[in-house]
Amino acid sequence: MQITLKDKIFTLLSQKAIWWEEEKTLLVSDLHIGKITHFRKAGIAIPQEASEQNFHILDELMNGYSIKRIIFIGDLFHSDINSEWDRFCSWRNQYAAVEMLLILGNHDRFPIKKYEESCLIVHPLEFRIGGFTFSHHPKKEIEENEYVISGHIHPVIKLNGIARQQVKLPCFYFGGQQAILPSFGAFTGGHVIEIQEGDRVVAVAEKKLIRIK
């Protein structure tokens, strides 16, 4: 599904990422790699195989598009270093020719040198290109001609059905000057967003995209 922002065309993907064809760039937010292993250490019974889900989907995208750059919009890794960090480094080495940028999120707590050793280009606060600002946290003060693409809150939309049934689905949110991507990672939860007049929202239901508004 395509959406136009500032006269640029972006393709929304059912894998909860965005493909920017003009820049050959994949936009991904909130992977939270390491969270499943972190939960397992805390005694929460999540199958270890689930930790491979992020990498399986990333490989699917790498094989499906001519990606020259990935922008990780924060919270790439969750909590302390564990075995999933080594898995990420191994994955990153498979695609050494692809430029990978990380805008630091609140869960990205490693020393910057640690990320750079893995050939990630680190931006502590934001990264700007082509009239767009990439920031992990949604911005409260936005410049007049600025369009912000962010993450952090893991937006979901609540849909009501018959017999008082409800379902929460991850979603892409597009306001007048700011977009918020859904969380890419598995087992990351979500925050129900409030839709304002003029907003555009696209929900993700398994492998389908549903335009809500």
Helix content: 10-25%
What is the β-strand count? 16
Cα(first) to Cα(last) distance is 13 Å
Order of helices and strands: EEEEHHEHEHEEEEEEEEEE
Quaternary arrangement of the chains shown? single chain
Radius of gyration, rounded?
17 Å
Most strands sheet: 9 strands, mixed
What's the mean pLDDT score? Answer: 90
Q: Strand fraction band?
A: 25-35%
| Low-confidence runs of at least 5 consecutive residues | none
Structure annotation, total helices = 4
Task: Give the overall shape.
Answer: globular
Structural class: alpha/beta
What does this structure look like?
The protein has helices at residues 35-41, 53-64, 83-94, 112-117; strands at residues 2-5, 8-13, 17-20, 25-28, 69-72, 99-103, 121-123, 126-129, 132-135, 147-150, 155-160, 166-174, 178-180, 191-192, 200-205, 208-211. With 213 residues, it is an alpha/beta fold. The mean pLDDT is 90. The strands form 2 sheets. Strands 8, 9, 10, 11, 12, 13, 14, 15 and 16 form a 9-stranded mixed beta sheet that branches. It has a 7-stranded mixed beta sheet with strand order 1-2-3-4-5-6-7.
Which features does this protein show?
single chain; 213 residues; alpha/beta; nine-stranded mixed sheet; seven-stranded mixed sheet
A few lines on this structure:
By secondary structure, this protein is of the alpha/beta class. Helices cover 17% and strands 34% of the residues.
